[in-house]
Automatic annotation (TrEMBL):
This is Helix-turn-helix transcriptional regulator. PROSITE patterns: HTH_CROC1. Residues 13-67 form the HTH cro/C1-type domain. It comes from Paenibacillus dokdonensis.
């Protein structure tokens, strides 16, 4: 039988607590979450609210993403990708700026150029 999302989250909460080698009483002392309530969360008999989930994430030193979904969304890799894209776009802007300046110089030099007076050789 497939587990519900709440059951999976409860298992992750228990796993995170055990990985941190914490008892339910230690969690209570740090978070003020009653041990009986913690048991309900870990056994998927109750669903913690966002504030409570945040307390668990801080206490267990895991991300909310992982507690809720089971996946760790690496914000560093997203930040790196965003910074890379910004550098790429800045390079394009710099290249276009250089091109615009070159065009402006050409246009200005054409405006300054005056053709020599034409001679009338036939008269």
């Amino acid at each position: 039988m497939a587990k519900t999302l709440l059951e999976e989250m409860g298992e992750r909460l228990k796993k995170a607590r055990i990985n941190r080698k914490m008892t339910q009483m230690e969690v209570y002392r740090l978070t003020q979450i009653n041990p009986d309530t913690l048991i309900l969360y870990e056994s998927a008999q109750a669903e913690p609210d966002l504030v409570t989930l945040s307390k668990f994430a801080d206490t267990y030193q895991v991300s909310l993403d992982w507690i809720i979904t089971g996946f760790e969304f690496n914000s560093r890799s997203r930040l790196f990708a965003a910074e890379k894209e910004v550098r790429r776009l800045q390079k394009i802007i710099d290249e276009q700026s250089t091109l615009i300046k070159t065009i402006q110089k050409v246009v200005n030099s054409c405006e300054e150029y005056t053709a020599p007076p034409q001679r009338n050789w036939g008269s």
